[in-house]
Amino acid sequence: MKRQLQAFCAHLRNERQVSEHTQLAYRRDLDNVLAFCEKTGIGSWGDLHIQQLRQFVARQHHAGQSSRSLARMLSAVRGFYRYLNREGLCSHDPANGLTAPKGERRLPKTLDTDRALQLLDGAVDNDFIARRDQAMLELFYSSGLRLSELTSLDLGQLDLPAGLIQVHGKGSKTRVLPIGRKAREALDEWLKMRGIGAPQDDAVFISKQGRRLGPRAIQLRVQAAGVRELGQKLHPHMLRHSFASHLLESSQDLRAVQEMLGHADIATTQIYTHLDFQHLAAVYDSAHPRAKRSKGDDS
Questions:
Q1: Average pLDDT, the chain
Q2: DSSP 3-state assignment of 72?
Q3: What is the pLDDT of residue 17?
Q4: Between helices 20-39 and 2-14, what is the axis angle to 10°?
Q5: Is 176 helix (H, G, I), strand (E, B) or coil?
Q6: Cα–Cα dist 10/258, whole Å
């Protein structure tokens, strides 16, 4: 079973060429399923059926695993069994028809506009680390990038004179996004410093040793900025949430925000962004002809 799982991971890496982040997530989820099989005496992938997989999902949910994580795990199982069926190693899919328990929908945490400005508008030291970190923070907030998108960013994807960035998102989908003035300025300053690190490739964001910064290193730098500037926890996705929320509040254009975030389904955007309903009500009251009431209309 372990050999077949390793072969599937090689298939993801070499044939499907999925991102390293996706590979690690699939491997982690499927390793957990494999551990369950070994513990319950299931000796082959062909012997895992929907009843056992449902039992595994229930145990994970009872242990506190989120609905979203369980849905991702089931997606990994489906992908694995498609591979096993294609290779003639199996003839069924135990995840077929199985759905994750519904979880509570929580609005994502965001920074309000004042806190975002507090984070970004402070003095920046003119050195390698400070300029690099400022450029990363500005780009997260300016363009709403995912962590994986910023991690994989290469110089050829930037067009600073035009204020544009080409992003390779989920499912190898490419989108072109605007870069705000502040982010362009921060990137300009960083790129003047970048050569100090003797870059080993075309990665935009590198360490002092010249290597591309990995996801964990970027998370730690964002976290440090949050503690230093705001006295709170901060992570890249909070900046992406804040970007989407502030853009939606200002534009009221859900489709445009969906496009910029790279969401295939607009329902994801509706969940993803934090809507300021008081702001929406104020816009409605001031703009919609049916919302305006004549003076003295108290009936």
A1: 84
A2: helix
A3: 83
A4: 170
A5: strand
A6: 33
What pairs with residue 206 in β-bridges? 212
174-178, strands of its sheet edge to edge: 158-159, 164-168, 174-178
Domain architecture of the chain: domains with CATH: 2-86 (1.10.150.130), 113-236 (1.10.443.10)
| Nearest alpha-carbon partner for 163 in 144, 182, 136 | 182
Question: What's the token pair of residue 98?
Answer: 């199985």
Joined together, the tokens standing for residue 189 give 């300053």
| Per-residue DSSP letter, 88 | T
Q: Which helix (H) or strand (E) holds 174?
A: strand 174-178
Token reading at 214? 């990995």
Q: Is the pTM of this model over 0.90?
A: no
Q: Please give the structure tokens belonging to residue 116.
A: 């975002």
Residue positions annotated with a catalytic role: 146, 170, 237, 240, 263, 272
Q: Measure Cα distances from 128 to 63, 168, 170, 236 in Å.
A: 44, 26, 30, 20
Phi, psi of 165 (to 5 degrees): -135, 135
> Apex CA 158: angle with CA 201 and CA 221, to 5°?
65
Comparison of pLDDT for 174 and 276, the residue scoring more: 174
Q: Directed axis angle between helix 181-194 and helix 128-143, to 10°?
A: 150
Q: Which of 278, 277, 281, 245 is nearest to 261 (CA)?
A: 245
Copy the structure tokens of residue 30: 């499927």
